[in-house]
């Protein structure tokens, strides 16, 4: 799994590629935590290049969502592939986590 | 002493302990109405115990002390355990944590009724009596039935169907503890202090262990269900163990039933993912919004199970995940 971060205004986008599973979830958590601790609470997770996410990856998303919201921000998801999107829908996560088709839409949603 | 203070001291502590157990459960495994049902079951057990004890003591020709040491614990713990049997048989309990909560709730109902009775017949008793009854006896009742439920659930997890004998070890421990309490080996206030100190510590230890187990099950189970769904959705079933197994069933079942079997596996995996998703959201402190499509999904599930029939469901057994925890998660969703 690889990550890179860019910023547009007060929104940071974490671009993720590869698989988010038990082996890589901790690394992803560190990236998210680092950004949130640095005061950047509006976060977009770009899942456009993520081919698979396990329960470990979903837990990272939930933990980051909780942390950003507790600081007045939010975590939003962009571009998940149909399989990942299906799992998010089935598990009910889309009732609490906003999902957008593109990174631009997700960034724009922060207003 | 005033009746209000006596009632408060004798009744409130056990409800506060029950509330504390519910609060420390990160997954919110037991709904309020289920807890209340267990409390009412405990009240019913209390009424039944009263009836049995009143009839049995003269029949056995025992004095009150001997009866309370050796017979009453067996009667009372067995009657409290009756609702535990129901909960396990109907897959209403998924983990040791919710078993503990249900068990303690049953004991709470029992103790509530018992203390109301003692308030009637011993109205002039001192504050210390109500402290012992409220903090000692009541929590002993809750703790004993919690032990029955936890041990029974742990043993029940080893089987796919309920077996009555899983209740015996936990019931044995509860009867012994209850009997020892009634022996007054320690001064009642000392016994009460011991219960108040030890029980919270034990509860936290049990809950922490169970939550680690729940986390592990959630993770592994979710990933397995996700993998099955991925295989079904990509259509590459035939090369998988599931697909190869279904091929072997073709000689015994019609094509329509085989298709229904695939649909059932898919639907069960989807529901399992939903149930685990709900628990993961609760673990993270989020409330899972009710899913309006669940009712239709469960109807479809029932239709498929009827269409496949009992023999078909048995044949599907290796992949259908019918462990007590798998059935519990379906019940949890169905109740949402």
Features:
heterodimer; A: 111 residues; alpha/beta; Transcription Regulator spoIIAA; 5-stranded mixed sheet; 4 helices; 33% strand; globular; B: 336 residues; mainly alpha; 2 domains; 13 helices; 0% strand; elongated
Topology of chain B as a string of helices (H) and strands (E): HHHHHHHHHHHHH
* Spatial order of strands in the largest sheet of chain A: 1-2-3-4-5
Radius of gyration of chain B: 24 Å
Largest sheet of chain B: none
Tell me the CATH architecture of chain A.
2-Layer Sandwich
Q: Which regions of chain A are unreliable across 5 or more consecutive residues at pLDDT < 50?
A: none
**Residue share in helices of chain A?**
25-40%
Distance between the termini of chain B: 46 Å
Q: Proportion of β residues of chain A? A: 25-35%
The number of distinct β-strands of chain A equals 5
Number of domains as seen in the coordinates of chain B: 2
- Global Rg of chain A: 12 Å
Characterization of this structure:
The complex is a heterodimer of chains A (111) and B (336). Chain A is of the alpha/beta class. Chain A has one domain: Transcription Regulator spoIIAA. Chain A has four helices and five strands, in the order E-E-H-E-H-E-H-E-H. Chain A has helices at residues 25-37, 55-70, 82-90, 103-108, and strands at residues 2-8, 11-20, 42-53, 74-78, 98-100. In chain A, helix 1 (25-37) links the parallel strand 2 and strand 3 (42-53). Chain A starts with a strand and ends with a helix. With 336 residues, chain B is an all-alpha fold. Chain B folds into two domains: 3-212, no CATH class; 235-334. Helices cover 80% and strands 0% of the residues of chain B. Chain B is built from 13 helices and no strands. Chain B has helices at 3-24, 32-60, 64-70, 72-89, 96-121, 127-156, 167-182, 188-234, 241-248, 255-283, 294-315, 317-320, 324-334. Chain B is elongated, with a radius of gyration of 24 Å. The model of chain B has no long low-confidence stretch (mean pLDDT 88). The interface between A and B is medium-sized, with 19 and 23 residues.
């Amino acid at each position: 799994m690889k990550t890179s971060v860019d910023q547009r205004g007060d929104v940071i986008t974490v671009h993720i590629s590869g698989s988010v599973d038990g082996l890589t979830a901790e690394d992803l958590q560190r990236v998210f935590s680092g950004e949130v601790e640095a005061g950047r609470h509006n976060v977009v997770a770009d899942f456009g290049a993520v081919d698979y996410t396990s329960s470990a990856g979903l837990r990272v998303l939930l933990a980051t969502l909780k942390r950003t919201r507790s600081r007045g921000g939010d975590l939003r998801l962009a571009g998940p592939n149909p399989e990942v999107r299906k799992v998010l829908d089935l598990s009910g996560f889309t009732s609490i986590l906003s999902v957008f088709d593109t990174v631009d839409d997700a960034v724009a949603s922060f207003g | 002493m005033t009746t209000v203070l006596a009632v408060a001291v004798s009744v409130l502590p056990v409800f506060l302990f029950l509330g504390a157990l519910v609060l420390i459960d990160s997954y919110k495994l037991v709904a309020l109405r289920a807890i209340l049902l267990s409390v009412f079951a405990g009240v019913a057990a209390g009424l039944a115990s009263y009836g049995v004890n009143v009839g049995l003591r003269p029949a056995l020709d025992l004095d009150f002390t001997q009866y309370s040491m050796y017979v009453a614990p067996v009667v009372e713990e067995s009657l409290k355990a009756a609702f535990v049997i129901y909960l396990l048989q109907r897959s209403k309990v998924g983990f040791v944590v919710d078993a503990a909560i249900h068990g303690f709730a049953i004991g709470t109902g029992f103790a509530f009724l018992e203390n109301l009775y003692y308030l009637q017949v011993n109205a002039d008793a001192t504050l210390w009596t109500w402290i012992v009854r409220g903090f000692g006896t009541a929590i002993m009742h809750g703790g004993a039935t919690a032990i029955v439920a936890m041990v029974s659930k742990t043993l029940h997890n080893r089987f796919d169907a309920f077996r009555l004998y899983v209740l015996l070890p936990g019931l044995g421990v509860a009867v012994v503890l209850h009997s020892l309490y009634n022996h007054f080996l320690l001064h009642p206030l000392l016994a009460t202090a011991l219960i108040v100190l030890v029980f919270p510590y034990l509860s936290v230890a049990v809950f922490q262990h169970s939550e680690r187990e729940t986390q592990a099950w959630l993770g592994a189970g979710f990933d397995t269900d996700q993998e099955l769904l991925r295989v079904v959705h990509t259509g590459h079933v035939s090369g998988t163990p599931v697909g190869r197994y279904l091929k072997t069933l073709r000689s015994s079942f019609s094509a329509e039933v085989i298709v229904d079997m695939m649909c059932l596996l898919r639907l069960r995996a989807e529901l399992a993912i939903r149930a685990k998703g709900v628990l993961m959201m609760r673990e993270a402190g989020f409330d899972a919004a009710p899913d309006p499509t669940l009712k239709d999904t469960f109807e479809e599930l029932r239709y498929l199970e009827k269409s496949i029939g009992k023999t078909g469901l048995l044949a599907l057994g290796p992949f259908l995940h019918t462990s007590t925890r798998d059935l519990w998660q379906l019940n949890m969703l169905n109740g949402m």
